[in-house]
Amino acid sequence: MNQYHIGQTVVPYEIEWSTDRETIGLSMDGSMELTVRAPVSATINDVEAVLEDKQQWVLETLYGLAEQEDPPLDKEYLSGEKLLYNGRRYRLKVWEEDIVEPTLEFTGSKFMLRVPSDESATRTRKRQTVVDWYVEKARDELPTRANEYMQKLGIGDIEIDVRSLNRRWGEYQEGQVSLHWRLVLAPRKIQDYVVAHELAHFRHDQHSDAFWNTVGTLVPDYRDRREWLRVNGGQLRV
Fold first, then answer.
1. 3-state DSSP call for residue 56?
2. Locate the YgjP-like metallopeptidase domain: which residues (predicted)?
3. How many CA atoms does the CB half-sphere of 215 hold within 13 Å?
4. 3-class DSSP state for residue 84?
């Protein structure tokens, strides 16, 4: 078994040589085993060059993000169900009122979902109300998690955008940080890890040893938090 190092992360991989291929391709299955498919004319250096170029994809897939599309409608949004918020699960109470659109409130100990009494609120409609609440909270709360880290890094005036991201929790691009709104479901220390990770890119573009050292100065136990996200990220669903 070959090994590829991305900072402190060791990624085992196997190479499948093929006479029918002209390019090098990567894949990772549900067991999180990386497979490299390469033409017989390729060398180990060729393979490692592709791994270097695709290390962002390798990390994101390894952390369990590649399979996290929009979650299935597995909740009915009925009284007694629970919703995640900042790493804790809170009971949901639902009741009907003479209103036009569903509304969601959080009391600090439970969620209160009011729905129209004419039974027009479908499961999809109720879920969208819940999602809208999370997005609003994420936009209010997640950017504030960056203040301390920006001071430590000596950077400021950073635009932090909160939205839905494709297959990743955070993204750094051209001086801007984007965060997935679903992070607001995670424990705050996990939110902090993702924020610190993206802000560290203001100092280092690649996931080099220097990059991970910078992350470590901001979040000393980042390995534990990264592993938590890899294992539990799929549960951060609405």
1. helix
2. 23-230
3. 25
4. strand
First vs last C-alpha separation in the chain: 38
DSSP 8-state class, residue 161: E
Residue 69 has pLDDT above 60, yes or no: no
**32: alpha, beta or left, given left = phi > 0 and alpha = psi -120 to 50?**
left
What's the rounded Cα separation, in Å, for the pair 203 and 211? 7
For residues 115 and 96, what is the distance between their CA atoms, to the nearest angstrom? 5
* Lowest-confidence pick of 31-45, 116-130, 203-217: 31-45
Q: What's the burial of 5, exposed, middle or buried (CB within 10 Å: 0-12/13-18/19+)?
A: exposed
Element (H, E) at 92: strand 88-97
Question: pLDDT for 73-96, tens place per residue?
Answer: 478 899 999 999 999 999 999 999
In sequence order, which residues have a C-beta less than 8 Å from that of residue 222 and are 6 or more positions away? Answer: 193, 196, 197, 212, 215, 216
Q: What is the mean pLDDT of the chain?
A: 88
When pLDDT is cut at 50, 70 and 90, the band that residue 223 belongs to is: very high
